[in-house]
Amino acid sequence: MTDKKPHSLSPQRDREDEQEWTLRPQQLDEYIGQEEIVANLRVFLQAARERQEPVDHILLSGPPGLGKTTLASLVAREMGTQLRTTSGPAIERPIDLLVLLNSLRPKDVLFIDEIHRLSKVVEEILYPVMEDLAFDRVISKGMKKGAVKHKIAPFSLVGATTRGGSLSAPLRSRFGILFHLDYYDAAALQRIVVRSAGLMGLSIDDGGAHEIACRCRGTPRIANRLLRRVRDFAQVESAPMIVQELARVALDKMGIDRAGLDRVDQRILDALIHKFDGRPVGIATLAAAVHEDAANLEEVYEPFLLANGFLIKTPRGRVAGPQAYKHLNMPIQSELF
Ligand code: ADE
User: Is 314 a catalytic residue?
Assistant: First the structure.
C-alpha cells in the first residue's frame, strides 16, 4: 500500500511510468510552472522548518497530470522527511489507516491520492487524527470495554483530489493549506519538454518543444508522453533532432490536433455538435455516445474542454462551446450562449 505506484498490466506502460518518475523534479528549485503555489509553499515549508514543526496539512486539487504527486514528494524532500503514499480506495478498512499512521515518524508526509474516494468511516477517523494527532482505539478485553486515546507522531497529511468540489466540508476544513493546480501555459510546458528531453538524452529545438507544448492539453504528464512518442518517430526516421515539422507530423499522425485535442475529445465535440445537434446533453448520455466511462469523462476530459471554451455546462446539460465551433470552422449553432 505504501511507496508504490498502482500496478499496470503492460510492461511498456510500467517502463513509461518508471520513466515518468525519473523526469519529475527532485527539488522545489527544479519545479517549472505553478509559480504562485511554489512561492507560497516555499514560505510555509521554511516557516515550519524554523519552528521545527511539520508543515500544516495540505490539500492539492486539480485535473490529473498537473503535478500533485510531485508536489507531495517535494514537501517531504524539503522537510527532510519520509514520504508515505497511499490512495483513498486503497484504505479499505479503518485498520489499514491505523497501521499506516502508526508507522509514521515525526514530520513525515502521508500522501493520500484520490482523497475524495475515502470511505465515510475512514474519513471520520481522519478528523481527530488531523486535529489532535489522536484516534480512539476500541478495546474489548474480557470485562474491559471502551476506547483509549492513541497518540500518533506529528505529521503532515497531503491530500490530492481531481474533484475538489466533492470533498466533504468537514474534511476540507481540516486542511490548513489549500492549493488548486491549473493547466500550465505553453511557455512553462516548453521549458518542461526541453528539461525532459535533456534528461532523456534527446536533441530538440525550440520549435519542436513548442509544438509539443501547444498540443499537450496544458498537462506536463501528457507533454512527457508525447515527447516519448515523437522521439519514436525521430528514431525510426533517423532524424538527428526533434524539430517543429517532425513534431507536427508525428502528432498529426497520432490523431492529436493543433489544439491538443485527442480522439476522445474530438468524439465529444462531434457528438455534441452533430449527434445531438447542439442541444444540451446529460453526462451519462454523452458518455454512452463516446463510449467512455462517465467519471473518466468528468475528471479527465471535461476540465480541459471547459477551461478552454470547447464545452459549456448549462443547467440543462453540456453543450459545445464557441471555441468548439471555431476550432471546427463551423458557424455557431447553439442559441444557449
Ligand atoms: N516534469 C513534470 N512536471 C514538471 C514540472 N512542473 N517542472 C519540471 N519538470 C517537470
Answer: no
CA nearest 271: which of 288, 254, 258?
288
66, 185, 196: which to mutate for ligand 1, most atoms within 8 A of CB?
Answer: 196
The pTM (predicted TM-score) of the whole model is: 0.89
Neighbours of 19 (CB within 10 A): 15
Does residue 195 line the site of ligand 1, with CB under 6 A?
yes
Q: How far is the CA of 134 from the centre of ligand 1 (A)?
A: 36
* Three-class SS state of 242: strand
Q: pLDDT tens digits, residue range 187-226?
A: 999 999 999 999 999 999 999 999 999 999 999 999 999 9
**Order of strands, edge to edge, in the sheet holding 156-161?**
83-87, 109-113, 156-161, 58-61, 177-180
CA distance 280 to 313: 8
CA dist 272 and 161 (Å) reads 28
159 Cβ inside 6 Å of ligand 1: no
Task: Kindly state the cell numbers that stand for 40.
Answer: 507560497
Q: Quick check: is 113 catalytic?
A: yes
